Amino acid sequence: MRIGIDFDNTIVSYDAVFHKVALERSLVPPALLPSKLAVREHLRSAGQEDLWTELQGYVYGTRMADVEAYGGVLDFLRWARAHGIQVCIISHKTRHPFIGPAYDLHAAARSWIEAQCIRPGLVDPGQVFLELTKAEKIGRIRSTACDYYIDDLPEILLAEEFPRETAGILFDPDRHHGDSPAYTRLSSWQAILKHFQLSGEIARLLDIPAALRLEPRGGGNNRVYVLSTKQGRRYVVKEYFRDPSDPRDRLGAEQAFLRYAAALGIQCVPKVAASSNESGLGIYEYIDGRPVSEVSAAYVQQ
Predict the structure, then answer these.
(1) 275, 282 contact by CB (below 8 A)
(2) Is the pLDDT of residue 219 over 90?
(3) What are the backbone angles phi and psi of residue 121, rounded to the nearest 5°?
């Protein structure tokens, strides 16, 4: 399996350093929310768009050593390495800022990646690609045949040129974006790690390749996902609630009912595709339907 990951605002978080630099230059009030977005909006509202552009060049060029990785991302890379999963860093940025000193932005990013990812053995040196444009970035995602690609920009994952055989994951830590059938939206690297662990277990149970698309569908007591495979098949996956205070076997009870109904010749219930008592997963045939809120008392009586 090969996973592609964006760099800016996906592996690295600029929130703290943008706020720090803006305070050093007395550009924002101390009480301003310590985030890159807050600094940008403050400067733009003051009519200082060029100053914001110059500030970006300075941070991405000179202050990269101060930039920190998002919590959990290095743990994710360690997990991927331990499980034989190849990770590619595929990002795009101009080589020099549009305004201000001509910092080499690619060299600064590569220096950070070298120190944090390559030297610790988390990413291979030949798997780092910094492209100049979004089009070249999408082309690289295609040419490296990524099974998954993780980015903070919906427009990359929604682009017409984005390879449909690559499962997109939108990293949305501030929950600024909506859901889409084109990607799975997750708000932390801990959630991304769990997503891949769950995908691997599902693939093992179904005995299929691990490149899956999981779409969360909520659920009350249990977590529910719609699973799409590369072969075009769809399933419903349920991750059953378990707690020491609740001894009920939810998975066993539901599957016993479905198998009993099937034995009676009732065809309007989903077939059980796979299950695991150990992991608490049930995988079922996908059946198109309507929201349960549409079920009336008359249907219940029938």
Answers:
(1) yes
(2) no
(3) 80, 25
